[in-house]
Amino acid sequence: MKKITAYIALIFLTGWLGLASCTGHFESYNTDGTGFPDDLKEQEFNKYGLPLKVVQQGIYFNYDWGGGKNWTFQVMQNLGADMFAGYFHDFSPYIEGRGNTIYNMQDGWNGAFWENTYGYILPEILKSEELTEKKYASFFGIARILKVETMHRVSDLYGPIIYTQFGSKTGSMPDTQAEAYRVFFKDLDIGIEKIREYQEENPKVENFAKFDFLMPKTKRTYDEWIRFANSLRLRLAVRIAMADPQLAASQAHKALADRGGLLENDDDIVAVSTAGSGYNNPLGEISVAWGSAIMNANLESYMGGYEDPRLSHYFKKALGGKGEEIVRVGGTFKGMRQGTGFNHKNYSEHSKSTITQSTDAVLMTAAEVWFLRAEAALRKWSAEDVQGCYENGVRASFAQWSAGDVMPYLNSIRTPKEYRDAFNATFDAQAMSRITPAWDETATNEEKLERIITQKWIACYPEGCEAWAEQRRTGYPRLFPVLVNASQGTVDTNLGPRRLNFMVGIKAANPQQYTALVNALGGSDHCGTRLWWDTGRNF
User: Greatest CA separation found in the chain?
Assistant: First the structure.
């Protein structure tokens, strides 16, 4: 949290006026010299591969664009999606406890994901596409896959995005989320097609491997990128299951049937590597250096109730010793409840994340894909066994975290536990769910989905963007409601935020574009407006 104070001051003192001049003019982005020099780019494919290295580290944002690292990620993701997903909380009461935690939504924080993706990452993708489209099909294909992985996260936070017209000299108008998703699928088609085109002409040549730090070290191959693209297609298909059932089913079928396969082995983990890449995990800095990545009460309730052996791999035991404790904290796994409006730092010795600066930043795992397959089978999109896919997902997650024997857990009928606050009994809460890890074939489809998504949520830790998207889509896991709601009626207490508001600088810099974005959203530009895929129904 070294730089957050200064950042907040900038937001409030300037109202983003210093940023607004570039916000609405995407053609002029990335002209500050932060890219790579041309002479370096010309060496051994560097011209084509180095922009994609920027993109890879920019997905899970830690790109040093001149203002330092780590704090950027905090305002982009950790004070938003990571908290709303029920993963983390910060012990520091920003704005005297009246920030995002109680839905007094901070425009500067909420617009940061938009600003930094459009300001620094998407221009590198565009540049890469222009450089490689006619010369290097495989690099072009990877650029398209990375474009989808990057931009679906933006869309899942805001809704409409500037996508098909990004960089257009005619106005850069937005796509609705429905339009964007249809293009995502087409772009994945192109990405896979271009990689295969190159493979046919250049068998066994892996010339992207030197620039690749997303795929596992032993699997930096074009085949693995195809498996990732298929898995990403399945993720997006499941996301729109209720918004466009026909398209969802057809894209799921395509992902499951493709000869390239899916991520399914325990070591099929797509993550931004910290080994030799120059990348440091920003969540690790927040956790280790700042001590600010505190366990959310929701994880304490679910994983503590389940006696989940992964909990000790996710978090350290609390130290305690702060404030007048009414519940023993030291030596326990202790989390913080969101939305209490606290204004002290007594929670600073609660359980902190085990993630460090050298921990790879995970974007997709085989565990997630098995849970996607479980839901696809539940929806009759495949003939796979729902229970089998579900249990494979739990097994893969246990393997990923070296959590030991999975069988006792898969047979467990334990349920989430109540939450007891360390300092204020009025913050206590009963468990929100009675769902167990053990599969129940007699359960309803709704109950089966809750079981799948709850375990998927646990397995996706610590990637809050994906976890929050799925929680909003399905309503699972059931999260503790906030006790203080300062949204002025825009956010439903029981539902929580449904999106982030657009970057406020666009209003002044490009009012036409802002109006088009709001029209494409189809509702008010606040955090209570549902996204297209957020239908409020699961079947």
Answer: 70
For 5-18, write each residue's pLDDT tens digit: 333 333 322 232 22
Cβ atoms of 352 and 291 closer than 8 Å: yes
pLDDT greater at residue 228 or residue 323? 228
Instruction: Identify whether 477 is preceded by a cis peptide bond (ω within 30 of 0).
Output: yes
CB 144 within 8 A of CB 137: no
Non-local CB neighbours of 101 within 8 Å, separated by 6+ positions: 83, 89, 338, 339, 340, 341, 482
For CA atoms 370, 532, 463, 344, give the dihedral sign: negative
HSE value, Cβ hemisphere, 13 Å, CA-based, for 27: 8
Please state, in angstroms and rounded to a whole number, the distance separating the CA atoms of residues 293 and 314: 11
CB neighbours of 202 closer than 8 A, spacing ≥ 6?
Answer: 138
- Which runs of E-coded beta strand occur in 469-518? none
At position 177, the amino acid (one-letter code) is: Q
Distance of CA 240 to the CA centre of its chain: 16
- Please check whether residue 450 is in contact with residue 375, taking contact to mean a CB–CB distance below 8 angstroms: no
Is pLDDT of 69 > 70? no
pTM of model > 0.90: yes
Alpha helices per DSSP H over 379-478:
386-400, 407-410, 445-460, 464-474
